Known about the structure:
This protein is mainly alpha-helical. The protein is about 65% helix and about 0% strand. It has 3 helices and no strands.
Amino acid sequence: MTDSAFSYEAAKQRPFYAREATIEDFDSWLKYELERELNQQGYQNIVVREMTDALLRTVVEEDLVDEVAERFEQARESASLESTE
């Protein structure tokens, strides 16, 4: 439980474009929620690439299309309301 699931060389880095507040929330969640939970389960040497990979696999495997589409729609509606003010 101390070795990572895959090496740095096996990872493909991709840019994500999001609002600063969203990135800050994500980073906090990753470090203070997910990493803490994994640590409590006995995992050590937890690296961001593993947590990010697990997160992306969860979105795909759990078929979270409706939830993601809803967040997309909420952001569009919010932006639309802000532009009319």
